[in-house]
Amino acid sequence: MSRGSVVSRGAALVAGGALLLTGVALLVLPGPGLLLVLAGLLVLSRRFPSLTRYVDPVQERALRAAADSVSSPLRIAASVLTGAALIASGLVWGLEPRLPFGGWATGAGLIVSGLVLFALLVWSHHQARSDGGEFRGP
Known about the structure:
Layout: H1 3-26, H2 33-47, H3 52-68, H4 73-95, H5 104-129
């Protein structure tokens, strides 16, 4: 194996592993956990083909969850309110360091989670509405 190949595999392992672990954490925390798990698997499967078998089932579930998130006005409203609450909470945590885990490290994480939620909501809505309402993946 050449040095470039080893470096490339190492970079894929670090990037894919970070995405995968972050996604797993976000399955129980606020954020797009399933989509980050999918992103991590996609990165890792390019260098480690044995992981390819996990991509399709995770992709199917992630896209179904994305489609479900915009399936009704009530779900869209709930997602928008959640995103707004994450951003507002992030501002409060950033501006009030006396709160538990207070400061901009926690605040920025909450704000980024809210912004990612909005971006994914817009993407999901666009995907669900294009092609006559048929949801399609990336």
